[in-house]
Design brief:
Layout (H helix, E strand, L loop, with lengths): L9 H12 L10 E4 L6 E2 L2 E2 L5 E4 L1 H8 L9 H19 L7 H8 L4
């Protein structure tokens, strides 16, 4: 479900804040949110932009945009792997909500 325009829904806002609360996926330091495909991102007609979020420090975020892949073959490979890790970390922490199967499939089938 989408809210009016491209503003995040209440569920997407809760997801974003839970992701941010994990701290950087790399260092554990306080995080900013990286939208892997931008807030308006879609794949196979599924809105994924407000779901495919990676928590990074500001410096890590800048490094990613400058071409750092943190040991992965490509930026998208890193982002897909971190999406899975973020979901697992949130589930382990007891966060009660998850992304839908439709969103998961759209993200994991996103082209490299």
């Amino acid at each position: 479900m989408r809210s009016k325009g491209n503003a995040p829904t209440a569920a997407q806002k809760r997801w974003r804040e839970a992701v941010r609360g994990l701290g950087s996926i790399i260092s554990g330091e306080p995080a900013v949110i990286h939208h892997a495909v931008g807030a308006t991102g879609k794949h196979n007609k599924v809105d994924i932009g407000h779901w495919w979020l990676i928590p990074l420090t500001d410096d890590e975020h800048k490094a990613l945009h400058a071409g750092e892949t943190f040991g992965y073959e490509s930026r998208k490979e890193f982002e897909k792997s971190m999406f899975v890790t973020v979901g697992s970390d949130l589930a382990f922490s007891g966060f009660p909500e998850t992304t839908s199967k439709e969103v998961d499939i759209a993200i994991l089938s996103y082209h490299l």
